[in-house]
């Protein structure tokens, strides 16, 4: 009976690297090779400094690298030798042409499909791991069918990942579910069973769900859309809490204890980020529009609109509190990754908060314990963030390696990522080195337990979804002050 003995994964990023490392550790009899065209990334996977930060990942990699786990740039050989090929390449949102800003760009998926069919012979299972729009597997299959050879039998499966960065290793070892979709033909069902056998090395059979290909692909988009929706929902309530005097944390606790709702993803913040949520919701919007479902598209578009509104609202609050101007003022921004325990900055809310403050001429001093300086500068220099003026980044942004240095001489301290270390900082020392009045803007509610202490020190505290009721420097309430537009960012200051 045919068994999967060799696996090739095309793409050594946040999905391919951790997924295949865990498979190698859990299946020592299977040889796993992760390939990528990016030589520097492969070199990093083969070094002591992995290209991504994920708790526990380094131990997993080091336990099997060089034994049954390999990282290589020899893509063709790995494909040729493999029984199973994972496609784990990037599927970014299109920035041009039809579907710009919403549809997924599948050029890398197509390139992989063409390369696989070109170099392959015999029987192989090709599995899409990347987040793809519904019916992407059909596109892959059409490429295979149009370029088939007498000796070639390629089966296409969908096996979407459901990883949360920061807990990816745990999610892989103890998954809520593994979803595998394939054709309802005898050959398709055989391929599904073979992939199931790989996961059954450590995942209980009851947690392995098999569906048709279309259901598998749509389930991935729908899952991320539902999670993003919950975040936007609680963030909308946070705005109402600030206007009424309620506390969004108390509201979230109350509604989360309802078993029909549950408590997860009810944490108000400055908005969701990461590689998947926005991309997948926009992909879902585009799919609905293409299928002539405008009401459904509009519904899901509101999830994105609310996320953008929350970011702008927070930036406006910073500007309002600092006497309606931040031009030339030093602001310490703590945290740049989109969440704690990862170095990933893709679609991070920190990028957009930085943009809005740079638009106003603020001087930003940015600290993050895991994000490299080069990555921060790269993200802020993108045309849509730098307003096609990357020179302003060098003028307005300083990346520091010390949070205390970032705060020294600043008008305000802004927490954008919920790193645990920010709860342990010496805020008395920080306060003494800041300009007065000294403001803390807690965009992640990580300092709630310290409010009394911080107020006694002298800080003016602003946080998400709550009015901190103490004597403080007043700011113009949102009800009577500048309103946050539904789509427009804070207005730029006119150049002198």
Explain what you see.
The strands form 3 sheets. A 6-stranded parallel beta sheet has the order 3-2-1-4-5-6, sandwiched between helices. Strands 11-10-9-12-13-14 form a 6-stranded parallel beta sheet, sandwiched between helices. The protein has a two-stranded parallel ribbon with strand order 7-8. It has helices at residues 16-26, 39-45, 57-64, 75-81, 107-119, 136-146, 168-173, 186-199, 213-244, 248-256, 277-290, 294-321, 349-359, 373-380, 383-386, 391-396, 403-407, 427-433, 451-457, and strands at residues 6-10, 31-35, 69-72, 84-87, 122-128, 152-158, 178-182, 208-212, 330-334, 363-367, 397-399, 412-415, 439-442, 460-463. With 496 residues, the chain is an alpha/beta fold. Helix 1 (16-26) crosses helix 3 (57-64), helix 9 packs parallel to helix 12 and helix 12 (294-321) packs across helix 13. The protein contains 19 helices and 14 strands.
What value does the average pLDDT take?
A: 92
Shape: elongated
- Uncertain stretches: 478-482
Bin the strand percentage. 5-15%
Tally the helices: 19
CA-based gyration radius: 24 Å
Jot down its keywords:
alpha/beta; six-stranded parallel sheet; 19 helices; elongated; single chain; about 500 residues; 14 strands
Write the layout of secondary structure elements.
Layout: E1 6-10, H1 16-26, E2 31-35, H2 39-45, H3 57-64, E3 69-72, H4 75-81, E4 84-87, H5 107-119, E5 122-128, H6 136-146, E6 152-158, H7 168-173, E7 178-182, H8 186-199, E8 208-212, H9 213-244, H10 248-256, H11 277-290, H12 294-321, E9 330-334, H13 349-359, E10 363-367, H14 373-380, H15 383-386, H16 391-396, E11 397-399, H17 403-407, E12 412-415, H18 427-433, E13 439-442, H19 451-457, E14 460-463
Parallel strand pairs: 1-2, 1-4, 2-3, 4-5, 5-6, 7-8, 9-10, 9-12, 10-11, 12-13, 13-14
Helix pairs in contact: 1-3, 5-6, 9-11, 9-12, 11-12, 12-13
């Amino acid at each position: 009976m045919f068994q999967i003995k060799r696996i090739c994964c095309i793409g050594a990023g946040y999905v391919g690297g951790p997924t295949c490392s865990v498979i190698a550790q859990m299946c020592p009899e299977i040889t796993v090779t992760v390939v990528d065209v990016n030589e520097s990334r492969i070199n990093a996977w083969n070094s002591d400094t992995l290209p991504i930060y994920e708790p526990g990942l380094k131990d997993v990699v080091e336990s099997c690298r060089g034994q049954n786990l390999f990282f290589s740039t020899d893509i063709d050989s790995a494909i040729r030798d493999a029984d199973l090929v994972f496609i784990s390449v990037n599927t970014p949102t299109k920035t041009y042409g039809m579907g710009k800003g919403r549809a997924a760009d599948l050029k890398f998926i197509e390139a992989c499909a063409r390369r696989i069919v070109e170099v392959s012979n015999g029987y192989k299972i090709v599995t899409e791991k990347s987040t793809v729009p519904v019916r992407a597997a059909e596109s892959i299959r059409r490429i295979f069918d149009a370029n088939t050879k007498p000796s070639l039998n390629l089966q296409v499966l969908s096996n979407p990942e459901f990883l949360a960065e920061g807990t990816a290793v745990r999610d892989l070892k103890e998954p809520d579910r593994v979803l595998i979709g394939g054709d309802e033909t005898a050959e398709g069902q055989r391929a599904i069973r073979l992939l199931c056998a790989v996961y059954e090395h450590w995942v209980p059979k009851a947690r392995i769900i098999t569906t048709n290909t279309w259901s598998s692909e749509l389930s991935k988009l729908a899952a991320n859309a539902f999670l993003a929706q919950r975040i936007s929902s609680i963030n909308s309530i946070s705005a109402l809490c600030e206007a009424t005097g309620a506390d969004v944390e108390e509201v979230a606790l109350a509604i989360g204890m309802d078993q029909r709702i549950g408590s997860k993803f009810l944490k108000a913040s400055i908005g969701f980020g990461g590689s998947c949520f926005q991309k997948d919701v926009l992909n879902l919007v585009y799919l609905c529009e293409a299928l002539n479902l405008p009401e459904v598209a509009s519904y899901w578009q509101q999830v994105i609109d609310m996320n953008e509104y929350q970011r702008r609202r927070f930036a406006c609050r910073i500007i309002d509190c600092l006497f309606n101007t931040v031009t030339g003022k030093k602001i310490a921004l703590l945290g740049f990754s989109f969440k704690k325990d990862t170095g990933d900055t893709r679609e991070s809310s920190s990028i957009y908060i930085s943009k809005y403050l740079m638009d106003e001429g603020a001087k930003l001093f940015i600290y993050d314990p895991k994000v490299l300086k080069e990555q921060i500068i790269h993200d802020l220099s993108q045309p849509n963030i730098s307003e096609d003026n990357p020179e302003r980044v060098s003028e307005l942004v300083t990346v520091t390696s010390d949070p205390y240095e970032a705060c020294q001489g600043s008008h305000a301290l802004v927490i954008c990522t919920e790193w645990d270390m920010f709860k342990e900082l010496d805020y008395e020392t920080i306060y003494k080195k800041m300009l007065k009045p000294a403001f803390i803007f807690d965009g992640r509610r990580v300092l709630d337990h310290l409010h009394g202490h911080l107020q006694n020190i002298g800080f003016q505290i602003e946080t998400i979804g709550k009015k901190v009721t103490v004597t403080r420097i007043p700011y113009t309430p949102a009800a009577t002050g500048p309103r946050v537009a539904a789509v427009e960012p804070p207005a730029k200051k006119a150049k002198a």
